[in-house]
Write a structure and sequence with these properties.
Elements lengths: L6 E10 L2 E11 L4 E5 L6 H9 L6 E6 L2 E2 L10 E4 L11 H7 L12 H11 L15 H13 L5 E5 L7 H18 L2 E6 L2 H7 L2 E6 L2 E6 L1 H6 L4 H6 L4 E11 L2 E6 L2 E5 L13 E6 L5 E2 L6 E10 L4 E7 L2 E7 L7 E5 L6 E2 L1
Parallel strand pairs: 3-8, 3-9, 6-7, 7-8
Antiparallel strand pairs: 1-2, 1-4, 4-5, 9-10, 11-12, 11-14, 12-13, 14-20, 15-19, 16-17, 16-19, 17-18
The protein binds adenosine-5'-triphosphate.
Adenosine-5'-triphosphate binds next to strand 2 and helix 1.
């Protein structure tokens, strides 16, 4: 394969007997990008990754590496490094031998010897000095770094990571996430990362694709996806959100008046999107941090149900009529009746 490492999936469909795992997935992943596939269990993330790797072949559609169709090109000729959830290290081999195994089917780059390459990689993943240990003498995070070093050994064009941190505890996950990101940035290797953890996806990615039911709901930078969710699914899956369903009752300037069960809200999401006319149904969302206690605009009265102290903020669940809203604020609120409101510009039309 060439060294141009942009990836393209065009209309990829994958069916297993009567299960449609992927239903027309189209993605453009740029060279050097850290790209994440995120979505709930069963949405097709792993199948997408395995299709890129050549471990599955699409029922329909095309996968291209550097513009070239890779149909029929076996995994070992695709120049991909793969790290799976369960480390898959060889238990009776030392760390050095495990990393060197990554060079079994490919020579080290730049005319290096296997020994030199392994030393460099252990240095890269901060495991110098642990080369003679066996995997069971390492922590989970260290084992996963060995797996990463092994995948990177032949200097692949593309690095594929399938839930590599899901077996680790929360603190270790955050540490490893920073290390993976640093290594990826240092090497500039095109990376596709699979996770069901939306917070991890926001933290680590240059761009992400949010998937649901075998389809891509939205592709964007973490900020775009968080601030401008394209669909109700994305609005609810990525971060927390409050969804309001109502009907349009009027317009003025750039704003839209929406009635939600008799309460009128004015929203102006600045997107220039002026959905429908009077009486049209409309759904908008407001993030928990944008619902403010005592705000003047878009006031509504709620009854606080539960409070969760999170450290820098407290998350409150409150009843508004027969629905639950969630809001977050650094301030303590003791009473159970509160007036909430939000800026028209903080509402996002879905
Ligand atoms: P998870 O986070 O649980 O790993 P995922 O998003 O990675 O989920 P996939 O593993 O890609 O999802 O699976 C997508 C769908 O395809 C699921 O309904 C799954 O049951 C089905 N599927 C995946 N692999 C196979 C297979 N080999 N045979 C039959 N069905 C499969």
């Amino acid at each position: 394969m060439g060294s141009v490492a942009d990836l393209e999936l065009a209309g990829v469909r994958k069916a297993f007997a009567d299960t449609v795992a992927l239903d027309g997935v189209t993605l453009d992943i740029a060279e050097g990008e850290f790209f994440t596939l995120v979505g709930p269990s069963g949405c097709g993330k792993t199948t997408t990754l395995r299709t890129i790797a050549g471990l599955e072949s699409p029922t329909e559609g095309t996968v291209r590496f550097g513009g070239a169709d890779v149909a029929g090109v076996p995994t070992e000729e695709r120049d991909v490094g793969i790290v799976f959830q369960n480390y898959a290290l060889f238990p009776h081999m030392s760390v050095r031998e495990n990393v060197a195994y990554g060079l079994k089917f490919a020579d080290p780059p730049d005319g290096q010897s296997v020994d030199e390459r392994v030393t460099d990689l252990l240095d890269l993943v901060d495991l110098s000095g642990m080369g003679d240990r066996e995997p069971d003498q390492l922590s989970g995070g260290q084992q996963q770094r060995v797996a990463l070093a092994r995948a990177l050994a032949p200097a692949p064009d593309v690095l594929l990571l399938d839930e590599p941190m899901s077996a680790l505890d929360a603190r270790l996950r955050e540490t490893l996430r920073r290390q993976v990101k640093r290594i990826q940035t240092e090497l500039g290797v095109t990376t596709v990362y699979v996770t069901h953890d939306q917070a991890e996806a926001l933290a680590i990615s240059d761009r992400l694709a949010v998937m649901s039911d075998g389809a891509v709901e939205q592709v964007g930078t973490p900020r775009e996806v968080y601030e401008r969710p394209a669909t109700e699914f994305v609005a609810s899956f990525v971060g927390e959100n409050n969804l309001f369903r109502g009907e349009v009752v009027g317009r003025d300037g750039d704003g839209t008046a929406v009635s939600v069960d008799g309460t009128e809200f004015r929203i102006d999401d600045g997107s220039g999107d002026r959905p429908g006319g009077a009486n049209d149904r409309l759904t908008f969302c407001v993030r928990p941090e944008d619902l403010r206690v005592g705000a003047d605009a878009n006031r509504f009265e709620v009854a606080v149900d539960t409070a969760e102290f999170l450290g820098e903020t407290t998350r409150y669940y409150a009843e508004w009529g027969d629905r639950t809203v969630v809001f977050r604020t650094p301030d303590a609120h003791d009473g159970d009746a509160l007036s909430l409101g939000f800026d028209p510009g903080d509402a996002r039309v879905l």
